[in-house]
Design goal:
The chain has helices at residues 8-23, 28-31, 130-133; strands spanning 40-41, 45-47, 53-55, 63-64, 75-78, 81-84, 92-96, 112-116. The chain has 151 residues and is an alpha+beta fold. It folds into two domains: 8-35 and 89-139, no CATH class; 40-84, no CATH class. A hairpin with a 5-residue loop joins strand 2 and strand 3 (53-55). The chain is elongated and about 55 Å long.
Length: 151
């Protein structure tokens, strides 16, 4: 049996996430489950002829046939209905210092809560999130964090 060497950083990341989930009443066992891709219908699109759709979420206005994904890699046309594949599946959950966020020249005493999903339709050369923004949700490690519904 091969042993894996855990780093101090991995341990602290796991401990911080477990504390975070306990603080907000989330079950860490559900959070670290093996999530599938979301089956939630996307918003901001219109159906056009031939089972195609036009995405209205960003300035690209992607037109996609059935079975195709958008340029962002997170929305998919399934038989004329557009689905988002990242709803409730963030790949980043972190508490970071504000200086790390894209807010330069700030030194606030409190950290910032960061949450993000895979996929982006921009290709910025200076992107600090390139490791997950240029991948689809099937290529990233995601957390199952579906929002509560109802009262």
């Amino acid at each position: 049996m091969e042993k894996t060497k855990d780093t101090r950083r991995d341990f602290l990341k796991l401990a911080g996430t477990l504390c975070f989930t306990g603080y907000f009443g989330l079950s860490p066992f559900k959070l670290f489950g093996k999530p599938g891709l979301s089956e939630v219908e996307a918003r901001f699109y219109e159906k056009i002829s031939g089972g195609k759709i036009r995405c209205l979420l960003c300035p690209n206005f992607c037109v996609r046939a059935s079975g195709e994904t958008g340029q962002c890699r997170v929305r998919e046309n399934v038989n004329g209905t557009y689905f988002t594949r990242v709803y409730g599946n963030p790949c980043v959950i972190a508490i970071d210092p504000v200086e790390k966020c894209p807010l330069f020249h700030y030194q606030l005493p409190n950290p910032a809560f960061s949450i993000a999903t895979a996929g982006c339709n921009l290709f910025c050369h200076y992107c600090q999130n390139w490791a997950f923004s240029q991948k689809g949700p099937a290529e990233t490690k995601n957390y199952s964090l579906t929002p509560r519904t109802g009262n």
